[in-house]
Amino acid sequence: MRSLDLWMLAAVPAIIVAAPAMAAPAWNSGTIYTGGEIVSYAGKDWKAKWWTQNNVPGADQWGPWELQTVVPVTPTPTIKPTSTPTPVVTSTPTPTVKPVTPTPTTTPTPTAKPVTPTPTVTPTPVNGCVPWLSAPAYVSSNCVIYNGNLYRAKWWTQGAVPGADPWGPWELIGPATSPTPTVTATPTPVITTTPTPVITGTPLPQVPARIGAVKVDTWRNGATGAYSMVHDDFCSGGTITPSQINIADPELTKRGLVAAFATITGWCNAGNWSSAKTFIAHGHEIASHSRNHPAGSTTDAAWVSSAEINGSLNDIATNLDGYQATYFVWPNDTATDAAATYLRAQPGYLGGRATNRDLGGNNIEYIGLPAGVNPANFADPYFVKWDLFTRSGIYSLYPQGSEILNLHVDAAIAQGGWATRTMHGISDTATTADGYEPVPVARYTGHLDYVKSKVDAGLLWVATPSTVIRYRFARDYCAPVLSSNGGQANFPATDANCVKYATPLSLELSVAGAGVVFWQAGNVLPAKALGNGVYRVDALPTAGAVTATSNP
């Protein structure tokens, strides 16, 4: 967009006896992954193609995760005693948890016959804590050592890395000195009778739990409002593109924030496309801003449609390894009715920024409606309202001389809606070479700090426009329904609209009991306890039903 001549308004896990090959660690939404790292999600292994955080494996075929192999999962294993269990000892001792003497709980009383002691590896505890391993299951109050720190389990857990998730099952106690494993002789008991004994010190069994209620949060993570930033005119001249590459992307990434870069595809060179790939790796969105940013108005809707709408889509896919652009930004924020209708009919797009009506012959109807905050249940994804940055604030919804950047965020939180912000380059000067109305550097970084503070306070969800559009409509088309017995929350995953908009949804689930664990496709879903038996989890609608287990 260039200068605007417009006025607008405002289950128990299996006990591992022999050391198997370690499965990939479970994917965690709060962990940062870099290219080559492998995680487990939805019963499959996924390899990161580039830097990523909070991108669900498999949610986007063009996303940062590449499918590897299927990891077999046993969500409800049982303990199977053998007549003569024999510990496995390797040449290089591996710390394991020292077994305790089992005590059968039923009659007849099992007879334990000691055999010749076999050396086993036993870690030397530090302050009663043992080194954390991914295979064993831990219960509340168990203490482990990981990365030089002591952690205490808050509830039943298995495979969850201590310290990886502040809302996870591990509570940091303090620093520790890594223990030195020692080899001791431990008698191996032989149980000569059945039934199956209950071994003292193992976690309580997990049994199916009833889900009493399920609710989809209005915005992800239970945030009050949502916010998207859009930098227009990527690939244009002057300092716009260099400032977006050298200032916007690094400052956003440093704070864990994302934005969209509206790209004039016909003006991009090889270096611009390389930078666009970096944007994608950092979680940003590449939006279409047409192919040539046509100036003025036109009544030739066929020309606008074929050359500018589809042409830019093809340019992006060709130069960005098949990346699918799904959000359109109108040049000069004007469009004919025919062109707008054409955009809505294209299967590649999910939505677009609101526009004024182009009546032809440079006759623009400045209807004012493009400006504002989108309500939480906005109905038209092709008419997304926004606010424009100018140094004077002349075209903004907010008073001139105010910090219009932060006020638009405040409005989203106050209204519980979705605010989008249009900006161009970042520069302390505003010459012709700087492009249209650049944001001063201090105002830009100050705004990002303000946004991050609202995110940290749990008030704001920052996402790209297409991500917000997906979430808003997935709330409707993918809403889960509880089974008649409360055994699981089922998604309408075969619904065409659910498949179209599917994205991880934040669910609030009510489950009574202790040691509650949530499952999807055989994987544990990280959960945050909200109090009164309510937990928040993120679940992908196309990954299967959500179930719960607890201690009996």
Q: Your description of this structure?
A:
- It is a single chain.
- This protein is an alpha/beta fold.
- The protein has 4 domains: 32-70, Seminal Fluid Protein  PDC-109 (Domain B); 118-200, Ribbon (Seminal Fluid Protein  PDC-109 (Domain B)); 211-219 and 479-551; 225-457, Glycoside hydrolase/deacetylase (TIM Barrel), CATH 3.20.20.
- It is 18% helix and 25% strand.
- The strands form 10 sheets. Strands 14, 27, 28, 30, 31 and 34 form a 6-stranded antiparallel sheet that branches. Strands 16, 17, 18, 24, 25 and 26 form a 6-stranded parallel sheet that branches.
- A hairpin with a 2-residue loop joins β30 and β31.
- The protein is globular and about 75 Å long.
- The model is unreliable at 1-21, 70-124 and 178-200 (pLDDT under 50).
How is this structure best summarized?
Helix 1 runs parallel beside helix 6 (441-456) and helix 3 (301-319) runs parallel beside helix 4. The longest helix is centred in the middle third of the chain and has 19 residues, at 301-319.
Summary tags:
552 residues; single chain; 6-stranded antiparallel beta sheet; 25% strand; 4 domains; Seminal Fluid Protein  PDC-109 (Domain B); globular; 6-stranded parallel beta sheet; alpha/beta; disordered N terminus; 18% helix
Q: What are the SSEs and their pairings?
A:
Blueprint lengths: L31 E2 L4 E4 L2 E5 L3 E2 L11 E6 L47 E5 L7 E2 L5 E2 L4 E4 L2 E5 L3 E2 L11 E6 L6 E5 L20 E2 L2 E6 L8 E10 L5 H15 L5 E4 L6 H12 L3 E4 L12 H19 L7 E2 L5 E2 L1 H9 L5 E2 L3 E3 L5 E2 L21 E2 L15 H12 L2 E6 L17 H16 L3 E3 L2 H13 L3 E2 L5 E3 L5 H6 L3 E7 L2 E7 L2 E3 L1 E5 L2 E6 L6 E6 L1
Helix pairs in contact: 1-6, 3-4
